[in-house]
Specification:
Order of helices and strands: HHHHHHH
Helix content: over 70%
Structural class: mainly alpha
Distance between the termini: 42 Å
Radius of gyration: 23 Å
Oligomer: single chain
Shape: flat
């Protein structure tokens, strides 16, 4: 038992609750040959949707070892830059602006498949509306574009772990470079 958190931890570092979620996902996947939806977990564990979503996000966070990256970055930051020794320079501010631009670029990369699918759906609906003006394209278009955008996001989920791992490693390298510049 961990005295601070009050939760028992297994040998792999998961709490008892996280272990139950993982066991449910494993068992459900083998029984139905597909992973459970969040609503399935919500019904099984009798919890709210945000609680299920938070647990899934935490399990993904742990699976990608992001906590190790963050702890390593904090530990290295003190070797590069002791506490109280930072003075902003022009080069470090430029690197900080570059980091902000990278965050914006990651957002565009995540949303690009949905945006492209939605724009193509707009063109297709415009041609359809021009070809047969009696169709209520304005009414149908909103739901069609929403569905196509969601399908594009779902289809691009397979590439997200690679994208996030790549961006995390770039971010860590950029932070280390900023710490070296500030010192």
């Amino acid at each position: 038992m961990n005295r601070k958190s009050g939760a028992a931890r297994s040998a792999q570092g998961f709490t008892e609750k996280q272990g139950r979620y993982l066991a449910f996902i494993y068992t459900y996947s083998h029984m139905f040959r597909r992973p459970p939806a969040e609503t399935d977990m919500q019904c099984h564990f009798q919890v709210s949707p945000p609680a299920v979503h938070q647990m899934i996000v935490m399990l993904i966070f742990l699976h990608l070892n992001v906590h190790h990256w963050l702890l390593r970055a904090v530990a290295r930051s003190y070797t590069y830059l002791p506490a109280g020794a930072a003075f902003p320079t022009g080069l470090s501010i430029g690197t900080l602006v570059q980091a902000a631009g990278s965050i914006w670029l990651v957002g565009i990369q995540i949303a690009a498949p949905a945006m492209a699918a939605t724009v193509m759906a707009d063109f297709a609906l415009a041609f359809l509306g021009k070809a047969s003006p009696q169709l209520p394209i304005m009414i149908i278009g909103i739901s069609v574009k929403s569905m196509i955008g969601m399908l594009a996001l779902i289809g691009s989920l397979a590439y997200w772990p690679y994208l996030f791992e790549n961006q995390f490693s770039r971010g860590i390298a950029l932070c280390e470079r900023m710490l070296r510049l500030a010192h």
